[in-house]
User: What shape does this take?
Amino acid sequence: MAADTKDADHDAEAYLKGTQEITEQVATWDLFMGLSKWGSLVIAVAVLFFTMWFMPNGGFFPALIASVVLAVAGWWFLRSKPADH
Assistant: This one.
């Protein structure tokens, strides 16, 4: 039975911890979160704009107004808040 787990035991012993600096990890995480939240806002604004523009009885200017309102509201809620500490 021990022979069956020989390869798995060897892999567990060969595991090495990561060598990336914590500042690099924080920067990577901050970049990922920024791209995720702002990218989601851009996609939501684009979907709203094109949906309202091309719907029956829709128009360019109502779509533009609604999209600008969503973009401003999204920017307001997603912006970085100052730290309280």
User: Anything to note?
Assistant: The CA atoms of residues 77 and 83 lie 15 Å apart. The mean pLDDT is 86.
